[in-house]
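Quick start: what a row looks like.
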Amino acid sequence: RALALYEKSLIFYEYCFDGNASERKSAEKLRLQCLLNSAACFLHLNRYRKCIEQCDEALEIDCNNKKALFRRARAHRFMDKFDLAEKDLMKIIETRREKVSMEVENEIELIGSRRQDYETSLICFAKKAFSGNSRNENTEDQSH
């Protein structure tokens, strides 16, 4: 339900807003909040591509927005795109000169752990795939 309201407000912004520079700036702040909130909803609903799209739009408004970078990093991690996730987290670290939040540190650890699990599963899959093919080839060679 919340997601529907955020999307509706974004549609209103796109098609109905026309104002002076000050009003546009104010509306752009509201649009940014709607994009960030809808990205959070999409992340919660496991709709990672839509989350990334919303974060991309938010980053067009504010290229260093921590919430957009963090949510996009999490979506990338869930999609096993570890390099992209790390890139977003590194940007948060670079742009925030103060101490890195525990949330970012935990996400970096999760990426490392998930990457290791992913690579291990790929190795196991490859071993099974190639061991299965070599048996079939040997059997075919012997039958000819």
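That is the whole record. The longest helix spans residues 102-143. Confidence is low (pLDDT under 50) at residues 134-141.
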